Amino acid sequence: MAEGTKTKVIAENRRARHDYFIEDTVEAGIVLTGTEIKSIRAGRVNLKDSYAEVERGEVWVNAMHISPYEQGNRFNHDPLRRRKLLLHRTEIIKLKARVQQQGMTLIPLKLYIVRGMAKMEIGICKGKKLYDKRQDIATRDAAREIQRSLREKSKW
Question: For 7-128, which CATH class?
């Protein structure tokens, strides 16, 4: 992103950082209808169970829930429809190779608005095993305990 541009983060998939090792990230545009962008601007988006896949040279995001726009009447959209992501052909080829050869998964991490356009940050991820999650929790708890003891020490 260029400096000076204002970004507004609409939704973030915090669960993805818990369940996956994020190897790399890619920014992609999204093809939306009129009522979808209005719902996104209102913050009515859920990325929790969403995932992306490469299919016939195009990248699609599935299971991303965008609630119907309240004033949308008959022009409203299906909340769980597949949405096309906009990427350069070379980026799509690289993503497809990493997903097929290395067993990676494409997970949406953030949805934000830059200069009036909705963008999505996609993570190229590898799933964590249960022991990896436990290890992350243990290191986080240890860091928290160190911070707590330092704060208590500084009070004296």
Answer: mainly beta
Distance CA 77, CA 68 (A): 6
**Under-70 pLDDT residues of the chain:** 1-4, 156
Q: What is the pTM of this model?
A: 0.77
Cα–Cα distance measured from residue 36 to residue 111, given in angstroms and rounded to the nearest whole number: 13
- CA dist., res. 125 & res. 123, Å (int): 6
Extract the tokens encoding 93. 């080829």
In the numeric block, which tokens belong to residue 130? 């249960």
Chain segment 59-102, per-residue pLDDT in tens: 999 999 888 887 777 777 788 889 999 999 999 999 999 998 88
Question: Backbone phi, then psi, for 143, in 5-degree steps?
Answer: -65, -40
**Residue 28: how many CA atoms within 13 Å on its side-chain side?**
29
- The full set of domain ranges for the chain reads 7-128
- Rounded Cα–Cα distance for residues 154 and 4 (Å): 38
Residues 111 and 52: their CA atoms lie apart, in Å, by 13
pLDDT confidence of residue 71: 79
Element (H, E) at 37: helix 34-41
**Angle at 48 (CA atoms; ends 14, 69), nearest 5 degrees:** 120
